[in-house]
Amino acid sequence: MSDEVKQEYLLGTHDEEIERLGVQHRAWRPQVLACWRRAGITAGSRVLDVGAGPGYATVDLAEIVGPAGRVLAIERSARFLAVAREACARRGLANVDFREMDLMTEPLGASGLDASWCRWVAAFVSSPARLVAEIARALRPGGVAMFHEYGAYETWRLAPRGPAHDSFVSMVVKSWRETGGEPDVGLELPGLLDGAGFRLRSASPLIFALRPDDYMWRWPAGFIEIHLRRQLEQGRVERAWADSVLRELRAAEADPASLMITPLVLEVVAEKIG
Q1: Quick one: average pLDDT of 2-24?
Q2: Quick one: DSSP state of residue 63?
Q3: Cys-Cys link to 128, which of 19, 122, 227, 235 (CB 3.0-4.6 A)?
Q4: What is the pTM of this model?
Q5: Distance between CA atoms of 157 and 78, rounded to whole angstroms?
Q6: Closest CA to 117 of 33, 185, 197, 199
Q7: According to DSSP H, which parts of the chain are helical?
Q8: Which residues of 12-22 are buried (b: 16+ CB within 10 A; e: fewer)?
Q9: Residues linked to residue 257 through DSSP beta bridges, in sequence order
Q10: Which pLDDT tens digit goes with each residue over 156-198?
Q11: 273 phi/psi in degrees, rounded to 5
């Protein structure tokens, strides 16, 4: 692949980010498993895992579909794929096919699959429409496409409200869009799916008010810490500003009455009709 195709992920692919993604997956796992169950993922299903990352969802899918099923894990990071392969090997999961590729530049070439899973991928790609079209081509008629994508990222707030945190969220949204992504891409999904031959089954907002002792708190807090560190390493932000964001986060964590309102995620489930 070209250097352009292998452009670096927002937070990198190093060990610290792999660990953070594990926390993120564990925090969201109850909602994810419920989504898959409602969509009909079961033993024998053939599922496409789009943007598989280090394979946390891949492992869960492979265990659910079992030896009679199959998972096709698509990921453009060789580093992430190596971690995913190792995780599946440790569990003796031989029902996963791994493919290193970028759907923005290469056709998937798969067809006849029962379902697809896509979480926080459409928000980063250069063409969400192309992503949806590739998923449509991979599914059989009646196949189900499942997405978790942000729909209102700036709902991410502290309570009591924190000005430094608000400025951090605004910075993330601004830089996200400057690099060609769209944090609120979930709002575009129903229209894109309709245009690609899908019937919308459901669209549900997922948003949480977390207390500091809630395990899920670690998901947004970990993002703040790693993103700030990365921005500082790259000279994109001032140390004083980064420190103010972290001080506000630590103060919220020390206050049992504080809340973290998470960025709204839109869960979209659609069925291919043709």
Answers
A1: 65
A2: H
A3: 122
A4: 0.93
A5: 34
A6: 33
A7: 15-39, 56-65, 78-90, 128-138, 163-178, 189-195, 218-233, 239-254
A8: ebeeebbebbb
A9: none
A10: 999 999 999 999 999 999 999 999 999 999 999 999 999 999 9
A11: -105, -5
